[in-house]
Amino acid sequence: MAAIYDGDTAKLVEREKVPVKNGQEGTFRTKIGIALTCIGCMVGTGNIWRFPRILANNGGNSGCLQFLMVWLLFLFIWSIPMLIIEYAVGRYTKRSTIVSFQRMIGDNNMWGGAWIAMVTLGIAAYYSVIVGWCLYYLFHFMVNELPTTSVESNLIFYNFVEDSWWPVLCHFVAILFGAVSVAWGVKSIELANCIIVPIFLLLLLFTFIWTMTLEYAGRGLQFMFSPDWAQFKEPRMWVDAITQNAFDTGAGSGLFVSYAAFMTAQNGIVRYATLVPICNNVISLFCGMLTFSTVFATEVKNGSSTEEIVALLKENGPGNTGLTFVWMPILYNQINGGRVLTVIFFFSLLLAGFSSLVAQLELFVHNVKDFGVSRKKATLAVTVLVFLLGLGSALSLDFLVNQDFVWGFALLLSGMALQYLVIRFGAKRFRQELANNFSESDWPLPVIWEWIVKFIAPLEAVALIIWWIVTTIQESNPWYGFSNESFMITIVQWIGFFGLILLLNLLYVKFIKRFAPIPNDDIALPLPASDGTDKGSEGRYKTFNEETPQ
356 a known binding residue? Predict the structure, then answer.
């Protein structure tokens, strides 16, 4: 039976209560709204900007198929299992990541939810900068001609990101508009995604179809789907594959803990957690095909060899950050009315990135709100914090590359925090109470999920982190250097933030809780029927007790 235990008596807490009304903080209004919001949360610059560049960076001399195989594998043995946890926890607790950990496994474990929130905050800080780039490119090509060569396009990119203050201004505007949407609550987020996501997907489909008609586009596809088996021995490829899949789908980010809080027992979380990330990864695959076909179609015409094109794919700024921004304008320049399409493309990319940014901001706002702060005040505080944290990425490409690696990689640790939550709560109990018995219409969550969460996924994360550490130390000279993606700069940031989180958790348990405990709003959740099927129990609801297990 789905319920939360009282910390002192270990008895189930049940009450008869009328459910929360659908106000601004209520639930999603439609199933299509849920689906589009979840897709909008995933689909964005991570698909069009990040995936092609990570794919290019991990391609060998012969191709990229080996990366795609590992990336796809991690979808099923990492991302989907972690997303099921997020959806189930959010729908069950109706709380943020921090309070969800507190309610389910006690005050001493709030650090797990705080870590997830902090990692996503770190991602939001530089992600908003990328969204700002989309804003700049949108207006730039409204008044300027499209580039015809990669040299011209690279010049536009470098003049913008390195020799101007535009990235800071655009970063501010992106954060500001995101804050407005978050301040209005779930209804505005749902409405925005119902408009944004279809427009973006339609334009992406048109661009993909057009790209496939270009002469020599097949050369790009041939390279993308050809293997270079020697790359399998590179730990960085495995790390990039799992972190890109987590970044793509939002697995471990806590975003869906926040959004699932607006779901009910009628929403099938296993279905959403399976189908939405699969659709998202198909979109990423299309984006990779689109980008590779564009680069090969353009450069083969210019007489470049495959080796030269492969090198060119990896040379668009530090960490290949400019790949999409350099090559998409060149693609559209080959189409009649290409400048108009370029403007529409960057407008759609802006909207898609914006929808993901809103989800990231909403997560942290939700956490602050759970401590008794009003939504508007929480939104203001988070907006200022994200803007300040993102200034480094807005002013330096190298810093942005560092933040992308450090916090993208940290999603593995966030996934481990979710696994810890399930193991402490009880994997079997979690599967039965939070997923199978709590849903009115959903796919059953199989027992194999328990094995993945308890054994396979933790082993994946630990093995990859250790492999990366050993290889990085062996190959770096000196190993303690502070380069963009070095061992030291990554570990120092992780340990620094984790130490701060543990300290705050300790202070809350020992001191703050006595004077300012987390408010208990007696949020009503549907209880299962008497037969354990959770088919709606005549208005019976459960609430959380203030006391939780330690």
Answer: yes
Q: For residue 270, say whether it is annotated as part of any ligand binding site.
A: no
Over residues 138-154, mean pLDDT: 92
Lowest mean pLDDT among 333-337, 466-470, 521-525: 521-525
Q: Are 372 and 518 a contacting pair, CB within 8 Å?
A: yes
Range of the domain at 265: 20-468+502-523
Asked if the structure places residue 103 within a domain, the reply is yes
Q: Assign residue 291 the CATH number of its domain.
A: 1.20.1740.10
Ligand-binding annotation for 505, yes or no, is: no
CB 174 within 8 A of CB 135: yes
DSSP class per residue in 427-459: HHHIIIIIIITT-SS-PPPPTHHHHIIIIIHHH
∠ at Cα 179 (520, 276), nearest 5°? 80
Position 548 pLDDT exceeds 90: no
Q: State yes or no: 280 annotated in a binding site.
A: yes
Distance CA 234, CA 17 (A): 56
109 in a labelled binding site: no
Does residue 338 lie in a domain region? yes
Sheet bearing 15-16, strands edge to edge: 15-16, 540-542, 525-526
Tell me whether residue 83 is in a domain: yes
- 538 in a structural domain: no
